[in-house]
Each structure stands twice: as C-alpha cells, then as structure tokens.
Amino acid sequence: MTGTAPAAETAGTGDAPASFLEVRDLKIHFPTDDGLVKSVDGLSFQLERGRTLGIVGESGSGKSVTSLGILGLHNKRNADVSGEIWLDGKELVGASQAEVRRLRGRNMSMIFQDPLSSMHPFYTVGHQIIEAYRVHNDVSKAVARKHAIDMLGRVGIPKPDKRVDDYPHLFSGGMRQRAMIAMALSCDPELLIADEPTTALDVTVQAQILDLIRDLQQEFNSAVIMITHDLGVVAELADDILVMYAGRAAEYAAVDDAFHRPLHPYTWGLLGSMPRLDRERSERLLPIEGSPPSLINVPSGCAFHPRCPYSELNGDRSTTERPELIELEPGHKAACHLPLEKRREIWNDEIRAKL
Amino acid sequence: MFAYIIRRLIGAVVMLLLVSLVTFGIFFWLPKLAGQTTDQIAASYVGKAPTAEAIQDTKERLGLDKPVVVQYGNYLKALAVGKDYKAGPVTDHCPAPCMGYSFRSSQPVLETLLDRAPATLSLAIGAAIVWLGVGISTGVVSALRRGSVWDRASMIIALAGVSLPIYFTGLVSLALFSYTFKIFPGGGSYTSVTDNPLRWFEALVLPWVTLAFLYAAMYARLTRAGMLETMNEDYIRTARAKGLPERTVVTKHALRASLTPIMTIFGLDLGLLLGGAVLTENTFGIPGLGRLAIDSIRSGDLPMVLGVTLLTATSIIVINLIVDLLYAVVDPRVRLG
C-alpha cells in the first residue's frame, strides 16, 4: 500500500482538476460575537474514486466542518465559505444552493456519528430510505420500497422486509448505523463521507461496520472520506491520511508513510496517544500536553507551537512564521519548520523507540 | 390500548366527582360557614318580599332543609338516573343526566347549557382555527429568519398580544371596525348559525380575531422556540444531507417534531375555552356558557354553576384524553399504558 502520491500544487487556479474530488484552499469561517472562528483555514486535498482518505485530528480541528462544507450544509448566513471544491468536474463553493442540493444524497452522501439522533424518530427506517431514494429517482413508492428492502438486506440487516417498517428506536445501535449506511448508499453515491461512523458503537460492532463500509466501497467503487480521531480506524481503512490541526493540514501522506515515517511532531503525538497493549502499562499512553487551541485566537506562527516539545529548536520562527504544507518526500507533505534531517533523527532516535 | 382508554375513563369519572363535590361544597358550606341560616338562603331565591310560606315552600322544593350530604347524594342520583319534581298538582320528570332546575329561571339546567353551548362552540372552534393557522405559521417563519425584521416585529406584536387583555383588544376592535368603519356588526349581534349563517359569520369575525390574537401570540412564541430547537437536531442535518428540498425539511421533518408539545397545550386551551370564553363573550355580548357562568355565580344559582363547571371539566378531560391518544399516533416512541 503506497498511496496515491498527493501531488499537485493546489493554488486556486480555477481550472477543473483531473482528480475526482479536489479541495483547494478551503476556508470556512464563522463570524461570532466573540470574534471570527476560523474552523477551516486553507485546506487542500484530493481523492480518487475507489480510494479512501482518512482525516484525523482532535475535536475542534475542523474535520467535521470540512465534511459539512463539502456537502454544502453550512448556512450561508452564519458561515463564510471560500476556496474551491471540485467534485467530478463541478465546482461546489460557487454553485447555487439548488445545484448542490441535487448533488447531495445522489453524488455525495454522508454517514453521521450518532445514528439514533441522526434519524427522524417519527418516521420508519424504510420511510426515510424511500424518501432519500425518491428525491433523486422518479419511481413509484412500491419500487422505492423494494429498493429500500434490498439496501437493508445488503447492509446485513436480517429480515429486511419486516424491519423496513420499524422505527429507528426499535433498532439496536449497530443495526441503526447499518440502516444509516443503507440510506446514504441508496442513490449509489460516488463520494461517501463517514463522520466518525463507529464512535457511538460498541467495539464489537465497530469492526463489523468498518468491514461493511470497505466491502460496499469496493462494490460501488466510491471515494470515501473517513473522518475519525481513531488512528486504528485509519490504519484499517484509509489509503491516504490527512492530519488536521487548528483548521489546517499538519501532515498529508500515504498511510504507510504517516505511520512509519511521520514528519510532523503533532503526528508523533497522535501516534503516542494510541494505547499499545504490547508495552509496559506505564508507557502505553504518551498523551500530547495541553489542549487544542482556540480557533478565534489561533497561536501565532505554527499553531502547534505551544504544545510542541521541539518548537525552541527553530529559534523564534515557530512563533512568528506560519509553516506551509511542503512536499518533503514524494507524496508526503508536512507543515513544520524543523529541518527535515532533524525530524528524521528525532523520529528514529526518540519517538519510534517509545511507541 | 383498550385497557388504557377504560382506565382513563374511570379516572375521568373520579375527577368529575371530585370537581362536583368541591363546587357543591363551596356553594353550600360557605354560606353556612358565613353564618347564613337555611331560611336566609331560601329567602334569597323567593323574591323581593318573601313570605314565611314561600320560604318554607322553597326550602322543601329545593331540599335546602336536608343535610348537605343528602343534598349532594340526591344531586348525584339525579345525574345518574333522573329525578321527578313535584310542582303543585303536576310532576315534572327530569331525565338523566338530570342537573336539576335553575333556582332563578326554573328552567332545566341541561336544557339551558345545551341552548348556550353552540355560541361558545362557534366562538372557540373558529378562534382555534385562526390562532393555530396564524400562530404556527408566524412562529415557523420567525424561527427560520431568526433576527430578521420579520422576526423582531412579529415577536413584539406577539408580546403585545400576550400582554393586552381581551376587554382592551376587544373594545378597541369594536370601536374601530364596528362603530367607526362599520365593517362588522357591533356587540350583542350574535345569531345562531342555523338561523342565518352569514350573520353568524359576520358577528363572530371580531370575537374570533380578538380571542385568536391572544392565543396566536402565545402559539407563535411556542412554535418559534420549538422550531429553533428542532432545526438544530441531527436528523434535520440528515434530511438536508439526503438532498431534500428545504421546504420538505422544514414542514415534514422539523415542524412535525415541533408540533407535539403544542398539541398538549392546545388540548388544555381548547378544553378550557369550550367551558366558556368569559371575557370575550362578555365583551361582545355573546350568549355563551361563559356569560351563563358569570350570571349564575352572581345570582347564586347553584344548579347552573354546578352544571357549567361539570361541563367545562368534562370537556377538558375528554379533550386531554383525545390529545394523549393522538400523541401515541404522532410519536411512535410513545407507548400507552
């Protein structure tokens, strides 16, 4: 697994890109009474059909805001969205709301974190799938119902012809998430965004759901964005990984590179925060000091510098100059001021041994 | 489901017994506690210059000389099986549910209630239609355009609607639309719908609007608050993510979920109004149950007061039962039992 070299300089050229999904310099800002919240501040990435991108980061790093931005679900009245989002040759940021709405559910769809609160409590599961299918397909209710039963069967719900008439609260957590996936896939979307799809589920169910997503991705040949704070999920499913910090990309690489040759101190920290059973109990967890920054007063220079143990090695560059995401190895980008050699040295000598 | 309805109906009967007991107690014990003798009580029903015979006669006819418990027992018995009244040479039979005769007009209570009910029913139902339509739609639009000029203006008007009493808004609307511009007929022009539907409608427009203004204001605020909360729910985001048009998202997904708490309050409001909209009926001179209640209380006409009270309590209890049953239909998570 070597990943798709995330290449291409992604300045806002305005030209349609070659890749299936390309996000260029995406900025999503929310003006509030307390100040401008820069939830996403200059993010670029791309994704091909049949591949999976894992977006990783702490809460508040802008993962979910990015995915809602791609679907055009931000209210234009309280969010400033700029940059470019190209889906299959169409630009979405500048497109009308009606155009984006027609793409939603059909060309791109989303699986949400908590399937109980994400389904309407007053309508049956079948009704909600039928509704999703019929918005984009001009078919009779009977045909849509057959399709809904078919979808429920494909995501592994037993007796789908009976369960189709049940309400969401009558489903178990895992079954509910399967139903949610059936709904998201009902129109055969080319892009599927899964926003922490397994966070609210039992561990035993998590693996089943991830398997299901992988199987369905192969079957439908869709592009998948997997948003998670669980590096285990990313290692399992993703081809590429985008590590986000304070609304920007800290590191962007093929999964193999990110796990075995990470080039950003924040990624090192995330790897250290994964519990490892094969270590001594006291050394299993190496959390990152401090907490995620405020998105209103993002730290100057490198946003990670207050929590970075190596920020002094750069003199005052860490606090004065924002590091750009630079391609350091083929298909491997990171935004850090540390000299590349120094970073390799720290990783090999200090970090890897402890993980 | 069936067992639930039976249980609720038994509960309703117990509730009505309690209501009648309390009302009965208030009108019989209170005068006695205040030191009135049965003679004095009876005298108040006879006329301007009561003779001793007339007082004695009245006491016997109304049963005022019997202990209160016996009187209450007789009242309930009449309700259940009817009662025969001796009035000189003839005997009147009052069929169940017999609520007795008015102390004042000697008319059967039930007949009077049924005579007054259509006016109150017309007023309450008509106003309810207006306030539900206006209140809910105003609330929805305000919630969707929170902070807009529309939202602010309608919420200020709603605040005024809640604050201004009926006898103020009612009199102002009468002064403007009836006496000044002569668009609608003035007070006291209520006509039965069976007599003249057009007159009935004309006479009720102002009362409907006046009464609905108060309630529409409350319902607009309730709907707005409910919608603001619902529009932030995860399932609304899901509905949008499916690509549903915004209109469907608002009406089918958000409004339906916001309406359940409003349904509960509507049940209470309508039940209460069906027992008589006292202020509106008085302001516009509508001969409904509310005016009947006020007049009866003023003249101490116990059977009539008891009758109106029981009718009001019944309508509230019945409508609440209906609302609770509807709840289970609207929200599949609600299980009756």
From TrEMBL, chain A:
Organism taxonomic ancestry: Bacteria, Bacillati, Actinomycetota, Actinomycetes, Streptosporangiales
Keyword Membrane in annotation: yes
Entry keyword annotation includes Nucleotide-binding: yes
Cellular component GO terms held in the UniProt record: plasma membrane
Cross-referenced NCBIfam families: oligo_HPY
Gene Ontology terms: biological process: peptide transport
Keywords per UniProt: ATP-binding, Cell membrane, Membrane, Nucleotide-binding, Transport
Cross-referenced InterPro entries: AAA+_ATPase, ABC_Ni/Peptide_Import, ABC_transporter-like_ATP-bd, ABC_transporter-like_CS, Oligopep_ABC_C, P-loop_NTPase
Protein name: ABC transporter ATP-binding protein
Subcellular location: Cell membrane
Protein family: Belongs to the ABC transporter superfamily.
Domain (ABC transporter) ranges: 23-271
SUPFAM superfamilies: P-loop containing nucleoside triphosphate hydrolases
Membrane topology (UniProt): Peripheral membrane protein
GO molecular function, one term: ATP hydrolysis activity
Automatic annotation (TrEMBL), chain B:
Protein name, as recorded: ABC transporter permease
One protein family per Pfam: BPD_transp_1_N
Similarity field: Belongs to the binding-protein-dependent transport system permease family.
Originating organism: Actinomadura darangshiensis
Subcellular localization, as worded in the UniProt entry: Cell membrane
Annotated signal sequence range: none
Segments passing through the bilayer: 9-30, 121-144, 156-180, 200-222, 262-284, 304-330
PANTHER family xref list: DIPEPTIDE TRANSPORT SYSTEM PERMEASE PROTEIN DPPB-RELATED
One GO process term, biological-process aspect: transmembrane transport
Lipoprotein in keyword set: no
UniProt keywords, alphabetically: Cell membrane, Membrane, Transmembrane, Transmembrane helix, Transport
